[in-house]
Design brief:
Layout: H1 3-12, H2 15-51, E1 57-61, E2 72-73, H3 76-81, E3 86-99, E4 104-112, H4 117-120, E5 123-127, E6 137-141, H5 142-148, E7 155-159, E8 162-171, H6 175-178, E9 181-184, H7 185-191, E10 197-198, E11 200-205, H8 211-224, E12 228-232, H9 233-238, H10 241-275
Parallel strand pairs: 4-9, 6-8
Antiparallel strand pairs: 1-11, 1-12, 2-10, 3-4, 3-11, 5-8, 6-9, 7-8
Helix pairs in contact: 2-10
């Protein structure tokens, strides 16, 4: 009897055991692919926020454990804008707000200046953009608007006395932004008691900068204030605490699933050996 024939008969004659073993192993492999794919998609979606606006460098506060919830002076935006090689700079205040009456929590909410170039990249599907005279107006992403079943002219309530009217519904190349709310920077500063503060500053460089140009700008920005941390967009996304945590959890869960599948395979092999001894 050939060796290959022996293996085939060993598998074919014990069909239930073979099916169970293959099921355990395939489930483990599928779990690895699915979980790692989800985490990679999460990171990619977050990166799309910056790619959609052509951001080359992101500036945040140095030493912050979570850069997306840190604070830095909004005055840094003007100083960065004056640096050579900078086409535009825009401060963004980011917070997670809840619409309790609608049963939606942790909605990404961005405070952006009304004249910021970041707003120009949002494609309005309905309504209008933010205007100078608006005191309580917001823009809502298409996915969030659909989830809320609300449109232009309807209202969203953050707190009991903080009611805002939906001025426009926008669509972005970023899935993350499509589920967010955008309001004037000073309004979100007031709403969150973070006056004259932003979370980070998005920087767009002139032309098509090379890596050397980006590194030089990073050094120039950090020389303005020792408390500033400037990073190329790709590095900013990859090293973010939330992104690293999501990837770490995905790999840990996948490793456990793969280990369980391997144990099942090893158990089958040992049972087959004992039957022949």
């Amino acid at each position: 009897m050939h060796f290959i024939t022996l293996i085939y008969k060993n598998v074919a004659r014990r069909r239930v055991r073979t099916i169970l073993t293959l099921s355990a192993l395939s489930t483990a492999v599928a779990a690895v692919i699915a979980l790692v794919g989800v985490s990679s998609g999460f990171v990619a979606a977050f990166g799309d926020v910056y790619e959609a606006h052509g951001v080359d460098v992101v500036v945040s506060r140095k030493g912050a454990a979570d850069r997306l919830s840190s604070e830095m002076s909004a005055a840094a935006e003007e100083a960065i804008r004056e640096l050579p090689g900078v086409r535009a700079a825009a401060g963004v205040l980011l917070d997670a707000m809840s619409l309790e009456k609608a049963g939606i929590y942790g909605v990404p909410t961005m405070g952006i200046r009304r004249d910021s170039w970041l707003l120009d990249d949002l494609r309005l599907k309905d309504g209008r953009g933010l205007r100078g005279g608006d005191e309580r107006a917001v823009l809502v992403g298409v996915q969030l608007a659909e989830q809320l079943s609300r449109g232009v002219g309807d209202r969203v309530e953050f707190y009991e006395d903080e009611v805002y009217e939906i001025a426009g519904v926008f669509e972005s190349y970023s899935a993350w932004e499509n589920g967010s709310i955008v309001m004037a920077l000073e309004q979100l500063q007031r709403l969150t008691d973070r006056g004259a503060q932003v979370t980070y500053v998005n920087v767009q460089m002139e032309g098509s900068p090379h890596s050397e140009d980006v590194e030089e700008l990073v050094r120039s920005i950090e020389s303005i204030d020792g408390r500033l941390r400037a990073m190329p967009t790709e590095d900013f996304v990859k090293t973010d605490t939330r992104m690293r945590l999501a990837q770490g959890m995905a790999w840990m869960t996948s490793s456990i699933a793969l280990l369980i599948g391997t144990i099942g395979l090893f158990n089958t092999m040992m049972a087959s050996i004992y039957e022949r001894t």
